[in-house]
Specification:
2 helices; mainly alpha
């Protein structure tokens, strides 16, 4: 039960990150795709790195 909730929260946050990445005007299309793939492939670690490190820099 709890693992299902954690999984659903992870999917929702990953979608939110990808949408946020594609709203960034500084990045080109290839950069957006690469960062999105990186976030999706690394799950919770990618979400944390994006939110705490990359979000303000992109």
């Amino acid at each position: 039960m709890i693992s299902t909730i954690v999984y659903i929260v992870g999917v929702v946050l990953a979608i939110w990150c990808v949408l946020d990445i594609f709203k960034k005007p500084k990045l080109g299309l290839l950069g957006k795709i690469l960062v999105s793939i990186l976030v999706l492939a690394t799950s919770w670690i990618g979400l944390a790195v994006y939110y705490f490190v990359l979000r303000d820099r992109l």
